[in-house]
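haha ok so turns out i had the wrong file open the whole time. this is the CORRECT one, sorry everyone. sequence first:
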Amino acid sequence: MDSKALLAIVLSFLLFLAWHFYFAPKQTPPLQEKQAATTTTQPQAPPSPAVLSPALPPKVDFSTQKTWSIGDSLFRMKVIVQGARESSFELLKFKEELKPDSPPMQLIRDTAYLPLDVELLFHKDWDLYRRPFTSDVPSEIKIAPGEPPRSIPFQTEIPGKVRLTKIFTVQADSYAMDLEIQIQNLSAEKLSDQMGLSFYFKPYSDSAHQTYNQSRLTFSTNGSNHDLGAKDFAKPDAIPRPPYDWVGYQDNFFLQAIIPLTPGGYQIIPSIVNDDMQHSQVTRLVFLTDKLDLDPNESSSFKLRLYNGPKEINDLKEAGHNLSAAVDYGWFTFLAKPLLVVLRWFYSFTHNYGTAIILLTIIIKIIFWPLTQKSYTSMQKMKKIQPKIQQIREKFKDDKEKLNQELMQVYKTYKVNPMGGCLPMVLQIPVFFALYRMLNSAVELRHQPFALWIHDLTAPDRLNLGFSIDLPMIGHLDGLPVLTILMGVTMFLQQKMTPSTGDPRQEKIMLIMPVMFTFFFINFPAGLVLYWFVNNILSIAQQYWINRHAGA
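then structure:
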């Protein structure tokens, strides 16, 4: 194999890992971006600052609040009487942490800012988001499997001024629900205003490996996603213009999406709100309508679909509106999604995603076996003719044209393709990247155990030995990364067994790679480390078989 080609492959691979390790988008630290607070970008007429920059509302005393509980087998949502806002949204099939006593996964992460906060821009003094709502429905509603969709209305009014109605339409066994907001003018005069419906989000996880699972804001149009960070909110033209398929707040595993059900007449405006009391930041989305002009007794309604749940492809597809685009593996989506289907198929038999990863690795290794064997065989041939190549390089070092002619003659005589060793490796790199993205982001693997000390395939590999340490460039280690170290050892053994071309620089690079990979993989999900470890074991077995039959 040509040393320059191999060097380019290795450096490209390490560059990808280094970029993800050091430069992947990180969550904005609390109160780090004061200037980003309450900034917005709007493509139409500037909305009132009263809606886009609210003061911190008083804490809600839930002990004095009437609450309605709405849910099915998948979720439980609580709506408080004050503003008919969501005070809780629990995913019943997922836990906050990997502990037996852990509560269900909670998507409402703040008690000061509650979603579904309605304001009229030019009548802020009406305090609609704080007014008590009424409803004739029971305080606890459970949608049974197979039951038709149920509409649940909540209503408040300011006599002689306005009536506000929120209607939730909930269907069984679905994380999606529809929300209709009706505004009726009760006065004897025309009501001219704009409505703002606010949503608030905080990161879903504060875990040590959060670097690899960032919560982020996403605008999606025609199946194409556009992620935004807090610094992007104030940039001109950074926010795509409506209409949107959906706008959502997500991490690798969960998504809260807003799906406009009307084609136009709205903006969705992001901003950052600083909570100085909690020393944290809240991401805010305002669904802002165009100007309303309502005659006496006239009403207007706005319809949205809300999705609050895991990023499972089947659930997302059922919600429609290209929501399945939230499962995005970048350039390698076309490979990663089929790999996830195969992984889930193996799991249906093994009931262990670690075992399913091993079986998937074996299948991939079998598929690439002929290419890998061709690569190893080519390297064996290159190793045998390396002395002759070195003689030619020395003899014609001052005549590049003659040097190339002689080298090509040697390759032709011995039937060696100088690129035969690296091309099969190039073909396998997209598969690795696809597996990397899939194993790092599949909600199916979240909190799924493998064996022994590996209790969560989406968390870094750690064997708890009763100690913890903070290391430069790596961060906090609360245990020994045993599987990661074994991966590095097997990679070193594989490199030692791989035929060298006699180039000292290439040999040094190849022996440094196991150290570099071990360093990068320390905080990677255990599922990805398991794949790489098993792949190394299979590669060692294949190399041993080839060396033995080649008489090495």
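The first helix runs from residue 3 to 23.
again sry for the mixup
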